[in-house]
UniProtKB/TrEMBL annotation:
Superkingdom of origin organism: Bacteria
Oligomer status and interactors: Homotetramer.
Family that this chain belongs to: Belongs to the glutaminase family.
MF (Gene Ontology): glutaminase activity
InterPro entries, alphabetized: Beta-lactam/transpept-like, Glutaminase
Reaction catalysis annotation: L-glutamine + H2O = L-glutamate + NH4(+)
Organism for this UniProt entry: Kosakonia pseudosacchari
Gene3D superfamilies on file: DD-peptidase/beta-lactamase superfamily
The protein's name: Glutaminase
Ribonucleoprotein found in the keyword field: no
A Pfam entry, by short name: Glutaminase
EC numbers for this chain: 3.5.1.2
Binding site for substrate: S66, N117, E161, N168, Y192, Y244, V262
Amino acid sequence: MATVMDNGVLEAVLAEVRPLLGRGKVADYIPALASVSGNKLGIAISTVQGEHFQAGDADERFSIQSISKVLSLVVAMNHYAEEEIWQRVGKDPSGQPFNSLLQLEIEQGKPRNPFINAGALVVCDMLQSRLSAPRQRMLEIVRKLCAAPDIAYDSLVARSEFEHSARNMAIAWLMKSFGNFHNDVATVLQNYFHYCALKMSCAELSRTFLFLADGGHSVQQATPVVTPMQARQINALMATSGMYQNAGEFAWRVGLPAKSGVGGGIVAIVPHEMAIAVWSPELDEAGNSLAGVAVLEALTRKLGRSVY
Ligand code: DON
């Protein structure tokens, strides 16, 4: 272990990466996200020993977007048997942009994995079938996991997405044509957009996702969030599919299971040790936070961490 962690280490990493601000592009295909200032940089780390470190804009809430795809999978795992989930969605990287329709047509409506839009939409369809109030349930889970009772959906972002939902609608209808989408498309999309529009800070995200570093256990609740095996499986999916078509590049540079969102957030897991959340809204071409990836790369090098 190269470095002892403290907030100073995190400040130093942010200072190293700050010159990259201005090189990426804030997501503008969801108009409500385009107004976010690109000049933000934050990091938070929660450890299984109960420590918490943070630096920069770690307390500012942002739209978690696709990071929510991990949470919807967790809820599905809580309500469905393993084979029921994996007969409807795969476990392999797509190598395609997150909102691509290409493979879906060729592969008869079965999405490659739950972390591309198509896969998350199938998962949300499954939640709609078994939960009486999927949006309220998600809020309850997240509020409990990060001990922040005021976590909420950004209704402006959710509405903005719904108004620009042609591609996600097309994905859902294509899956419906193959029999892999059972509920009303608009209803499920509304839930999906609300999940994406969860507003959370890095500090809240690192606390929420600590269960993935701790065998499915969260200090916030008596019952495990998922089983140790499911935590392992989710980490494996994050490592192979969490960063879209840049999963290989990210494994090379950072070497941790991670999930990004077009709001500029990334959650990364050091199994048995810590959950890391970073945020910087400007994205690279794959839709991952440009500075966020650089922060994770600098940090893992400094700390000497990698799963490989
Ligand atoms: O459905 C969408 O396109 C967005 N709500 C989420 C996309 C996203 O965050 C992909 N991440 N890199």
